[in-house]
Design brief:
Distance between the termini: 41 Å
Largest sheet: 12 strands, antiparallel, barrel
Shape: globular
Strand order of the largest sheet: 1-2-3-4-5-6-7-8-9-10-11-12
CATH architecture: Beta Barrel
Strand content: over 45%
Structural class: mainly beta
Number of helices: 2
Order of helices and strands: HEEEEEEEEEEEHE
Oligomer: single chain
Length: about 240
């Protein structure tokens, strides 16, 4: 079990003393979404394995080659406090976690989170588990219509720290484009991860279509690295529901 040293703990607690935007178009980094108290969020995400250039017509831009999928469910205990559970198909990984958003400070909206995860390594019947700590911050409309974001993650299983950054630009009302980059920790791949996305927000729904070189789902997995520089398609759909 990985134990954080006092220095890392101090850095993490420092960030705690530094809310978040109402929805998130980022897919490599942790979701920056908050919901009103009592609401439920449901998400489905696919990241296809084949390249968009791999016989694009016959394979319909790579979607015939299988995909890594994740189902997620979140619940808002308070507007700034949420719990979530998710299951990804690769290595049958389950995640149970919580995120907390503090009031903005000088325009910056930080979000901190703690995840417990459990998965089966390929070819191994036993499960591995540990904790993942993450913090991200956005600065909505730092210039008109542009929101940058930076995220840091501490992986207790791989015993490393990683980071990612990106930006969201509002093309017009409810239509956004997103660019992200994540540094590889060279666990599953040596390539840095890149994402280019387009999202549409409607009442209660959000649809994100993107191309990326990393088929991993979830910030912790993304930081493990991409295995290729080839672009593949992906999509994410989220839906907000009322409990009653």
């Amino acid at each position: 079990m990985f134990k954080l040293n006092y220095f890392i703990k101090s850095i993490f607690l420092l960030f705690l003393t530094c809310s978040t935007i109402a929805a998130s178009t980022f897919v490599l980094q942790p979701s920056q979404e908050t919901m009103a108290k009592g609401l439920i969020g449901f998400s489905v995400e696919h990241r296809f394995y084949n390249s968009v250039n791999d016989d694009a017509i016959d394979n319909f831009f790579g979607i015939d080659g299988g995909a890594n999928t994740q189902l997620g469910l979140s619940y808002a205990i308070q507007e700034n406090l949420q719990v979530h559970v998710a299951r990804a198909s690769v290595e049958k990984e389950y995640t149970l976690g919580t995120t907390y958003a503090l009031p903005s400070m000088n325009g910056v909206h930080p979000l901190v989170g703690l995840d417990f995860f459990s998965f089966k390594k390929l070819g191994n019947s036993s499960r591995e588990q540990n904790f993942f700590y993450h913090i991200s911050g956005t600065y909505p409309n730092v210039i008109p219509k542009l929101t940058p974001k930076v995220s840091i993650g501490i992986d207790g299983f791989n015993n490393n720290i990683g980071f990612a950054f990106g930006g969201e630009y509002e093309i017009r009302k409810s239509l956004f484009t997103t660019v992200e980059w994540a540094k590889t920790n060279k666990v599953t791949g040596n390539e840095h991860s890149v994402n280019l996305g387009l999202s549409k927000k409607t009442f209660g729904h959000q649809f994100i279509l993107f191309v990326t070189n990393n088929s991993n789902v979830g910030f912790r997995r993304v930081l493990e690295g991409a295995q290729t520089k080839e672009w593949s398609l992906g999509f994410k759909v989220t839906r907000t529901l009322e409990w009653f």
